[in-house]
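Would you be willing to look carefully at the protein I have copied below?

:::
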Amino acid sequence: MGAFLVYTLAIAALCSHANSQLVPAIITFGDSTVDVGNNDYIHTIFKADHPPYGQDFSNREPTGRFCNGKLATDITAENLGFTNYAPAYLSPQASGKNLLLGANFASAGSGYDDNTAELSHVIPLSQQLQYFKEYQSKLASVAGSKNASSITKEALYLIGAGNSDFLQNYYVNPFLNKHYTVDQYSSILINIFSNFVTSLYGLGARKIGATSLAPTGCLPLARTIFGQHEKGCVSSFNTDAQQFNKKINAAASQLKKQLPGLRLVIFDIYKPIYDLVANPKKYGFVEATRGCCGTGTVETTFVLCNQKSGTCSNSSEFVFWDSVHPSQAANQVLADSLIIQGISLVA
């Protein structure tokens, strides 16, 4: 009953602002879970600029999102009253009045560790921060210095990172996993996270939401490549993710004590995604062990998930779109969870 009441109050608060935005802008950093097309404009194989990506988006065309449709952050923006999405910063749309909506600096394949991004030739988090500083100057030119400062302070900042650091770097990089334990590497990432939040705070950010790690051992790619001798999810990966999540929540608590006026929420995406995988029928899904694209076991990016690989007949029945990323239907479930968890940031 308590959870239902919280959910009802959250929905009521959002609905009461149906014709207005609860925040003036949304600023996003991170990886493929939140990238809306920046990788379309750089030289990397980590792109979603081709079918079947985007097949269920409003224009039925690929948008650079690693999904068949909307990301959880897109749906969250709609819940906050936005009728248009903040543009990918490297896109032509990131100019003029569109900058008033915010900007998305995320890059698929990136992470907290800049070395993760370098392995994939994508935009590291440190560069994303530099782009944000550049954006602030452009915003001041469009809105005026006073209004730009107000937008910066009242905007919602979202950070979605960390999964790539483990799946695309630590677990497959012998230089790392032979020299650092998982616990040590997690601490390195947490230190980067804390410094990043502190830098954002110094640039005017006050409302920041960052995602926890997903249950990485339950992703189809992880099951296929690392779980040959284990039924179900790769338990060690999930344990690593849970330990990281404890650390990032502790770091967030410490940052709020150190930085006056900071609102910082760690969005738990571990539990909702794990629940989707463990109990798909509860949420109306049929398949939770593989993605919709191709065999759904290893397909992602243009190398494997493309027009020739084929897709399932009904993506809304699948928890995962490709071997790593949630489907739009699953992202809707995640967004519903974010409403409850993040209401303190925008209320």
Notes: Residues 1-7 have pLDDT under 50 and may be disordered. The beta strands are 26-30, 102-104, 156-160, 207-211, 263-267, 287-291, 318-320. The chain has 13 helices and seven strands.
